[in-house]
Amino acid sequence: MSLRPLWLSLLLLCSFSSVAKLEEFYIELKDHIFVPERIELPANKKVKLIILNRDTTAEEFDSFDLNREKVLFPNRKAVIFVGPLKPGEYEFFGEFNPDSARGFVVVKEPSDVH
Description:
By secondary structure, the chain is mainly β. It has one domain (23-112): Sandwich (Immunoglobulin-like). Helices cover 15% and strands 46% of the residues. The strands form two sheets. A five-stranded mixed β-sheet has the order 3-9-8-5-6, with no helix packed on it. A four-stranded mixed β-sheet has the order 2-1-4-7, with no helix packed on it. The longest helix has 17 residues, at 4-20. It is globular and about 55 Å long. 18% of the residues are buried.
């Protein structure tokens, strides 16, 4: 019996378990407004951003700064992985309602994140 398949299985299991342990941060979209408008994330860490669309219409999460784009279906949640990022502000917006659906990811050193 070869150990290679077992080694590959263990490697995949470790990879999946590390994704499951990522810190999660939540944003809601309601009445075409992201709440909170500013969310703080830790620097130099990959995190899971969970967006809950409470509206009855779709929206598209867009961020040139984060290099992310994701359709947010009505009354559903979407997951976006971001990072690791350097400290700073990263803008995001809703493509279908760019005047109201706007926000910022504020990346800080982990000791400064509230």
